[in-house]
Amino acid sequence: MSNNNEANKIAEFTAPGMNEESAKNTIATLDNRMVALLDLQLTLKHIHWNVVGANFIGVHEMLDPQVEVIRAMTDTIAERIATLGGVPVGTPKSIVDRRSWHDYSLGKGLVKDHLVALDKVYNGINGDHRSAIGKLSELDPVSEDMLISQLADLEQFQWFVRAHLESSTGKLSS
């Protein structure tokens, strides 16, 4: 397998029964999800440190458990990349260079403002996880299953965020 650049390095082996092309495509898909989750865990900590106003403590305390679960997800993805012969790269500059979205734009802000913005972040993360699951269904059922499990937690975390934004009639405030 070729070693064009750091993010695309692949060992001369992969999981038994998987061909080189499938491994390469699976690694690329997982790398995208790893970068997204690394970015998400940092964004969640940023919000945790900068959220203010009514219901501050509930939101502040809601975010740390999400960070811990997402850190574990990131580790699982990185280890799967390595298992398939890839090199998981998680340095700060490499994360910024490989992401395709804009940085989280709010600094210190009210609970509602941060939660509305975080709901949009989860829309992107969860939608992209679903797309990755679709790609992986053709490439690697083990990685597909891993992301399906993660998506269940990610969607629950988004529900936690939306519960703060939802009216009694089920409408989300924006």
Describe the structure.
The protein has 174 residues and is mainly α. It has a single domain, classed as Up-down Bundle (Ferritin). It contains 5 helices and 2 strands, in the order αβααβαα. It has helices at 20-50, 56-83, 92-98, 111-139, 141-165; strands at 51-52, 109-110. Strands 1-2 form a two-stranded parallel sheet. α1 packs antiparallel against α2 (56-83). The protein is elongated, with a radius of gyration of 17 Å. One of its GO terms (molecular function) is ferric iron binding. Belongs to the Dps family. Residues 28-166 form the Ferritin/DPS domain.
Spell out the CATH superfamily.
Ferritin, core subunit, four-helix bundle
- Note the total helix count: 5
Distance between the termini: 48 Å
Q: Could you say what the CATH topology is called?
A: Ferritin
The shape is elongated
**Overall tally of structural domains:** 1
What's the β-strand tally?
2
Order of helices and strands: HEHHEHH
- In CATH terms, what is the architecture? Up-down Bundle
Radius of gyration computed on alpha carbons: 17 Å
Average pLDDT works out at 92
Proportion of beta-strand residues: under 5%
Major sheet summary line? 2 strands, parallel
Q: What is the spatial order of strands in the main beta sheet?
A: 1-2
| Protein structure class | mainly alpha
- The share of residues in helices is 55-70%
- Please mark out the parts with pLDDT under 50 across 5 or more consecutive residues, or reply none: 1-5
State the CATH class.
Mainly Alpha
GO molecular function: ferric iron binding; oxidoreductase activity, acting on metal ions
Domain Ferritin/DPS: 28-166
Protein name: DNA starvation/stationary phase protection protein Dps
Family: Belongs to the Dps family.
